[in-house]
Every structure is written in structure tokens, then in C-alpha cells.
Amino acid sequence: MADYQFQRVIRFGDTDAAGVVYFAQLLSICHEAYEAAIAALGIELRSFFSDRGSVILPIVHAEIDYQRPTYCGDRLEIELQATALGRDRFRVDYRLSHNHQPVATAQTIHLCLESQTRQRSPLPERLQDWLQITAD
Fold first, then answer.
1. CATH number at residue 122
2. Segment holding 37, helix H or strand E
3. Phi, psi of 45 (to 5 degrees)
4. Predicted local confidence at residue 30, as pLDDT
5. Chain centroid to CA 63: how far?
6. Which of 20, 73, 86, 117 is the most core-located residue (most Cβ within 10 A)?
7. What is the overall mean pLDDT for the chain?
8. pLDDT at residue 51 is higher than 60
9. What band does 40 get if pLDDT is binned at 50, 70 and 90?
10. Long-range contacts of 63-66 (CB under 8 A, 24+ apart)
């Protein structure tokens, strides 16, 4: 599996007063795709995203470039690919499209920290496996 595929219909609450998707909402939708990819590994999201786990994975960088507007009712296709950036961080690249037309590209960089000490920590084995799968 080179890329993880995710689909999301744009809802009215995703849009602004002009009727297009609010700019920051596309990053939120990218995070939904990331969560779905993690869940597809069989990782339980509640513990994965809480301080009760052994590590946390905060986003330390995010960027997005928009190619065209999207509207309520549009079905977005989101492809994501994750890449290791050393032993304690990784990047997720997102390609968003509607009807096979590019909508946006985005990127997030995540850093692995021990949840209690907030010190850098190696990526957990299951996450390393995911990075390997999406890199193939």
C-alpha cells in the first residue's frame, strides 16, 4: 500500500460565509485522514492520542497550498503518504482532490515525545511499521 486513501464529504459546517470550505478546515480534514490511517493499523485512537500512552506525537509543522475552492456537498478524495524523518519524527504528505481535480496539497511533521517527560523518543514499532508500509 503506497498511499492511504480517505474520502470525506464537505458539510455546511466546513464552509465560510462565502460558501467555500474555510481555509483551516482542510487541515482538520487532513487530520481526519491521518486518524483513519492510524485506526486502519488497528491502533486504538483514544489511547494513541492521550497522555496515558507512552508517547505523544505533536504536529510541529503544518502547511497547505490551495489549488481550487471546494463547496458543501463536494466529495474529497485524500491520499496520504507518511515518511520517516529519522528515528523520532515523520512527515505526512496529503493530496486532496475532487472529481480527480487537485484541490490542495498539505504536509504535517510530527515529533515523537515521551508523554511524561516530553523528551524526544524513538517512534513506536507499530508506527515504524506504518511508515514502512506507506513508503513501499
1. 3.10.129.10
2. helix 23-40
3. -65, -35
4. 96
5. 12
6. 20
7. 90
8. no
9. confident
10. 63/106, 63/107, 64/23, 64/26, 64/27, 64/30, 64/104, 64/105, 64/106, 64/107, 65/104, 65/105, 65/106, 66/23, 66/26, 66/103, 66/104
Please tell me what DSSP assigns to residue 4: E
DSSP 8-state assignment for residue 71: B
Is pLDDT above 80 for 48? no
Check 3, 14, 16, 51 and give the catalytic one: 16
* Matching residue, cell 464537505: 10
pTM: 0.89
Contact 70, 11 (CB under 8 A): no
Selection from 21, 26, 23 nearest residue 78 by Cα: 26
- For cell 500512552, the residue is 53
Angle value at C-alpha 59, between 56 and 64, nearest 5 degrees: 155
Q: Which of 61, 106, 98 is nearest to 80 (CA)?
A: 106
Query: Which domain, by its residues, includes 92?
Result: 4-135
Side chain identity at residue 11, one-letter code: R
Asked about 93 being catalytic, the answer comes back as no
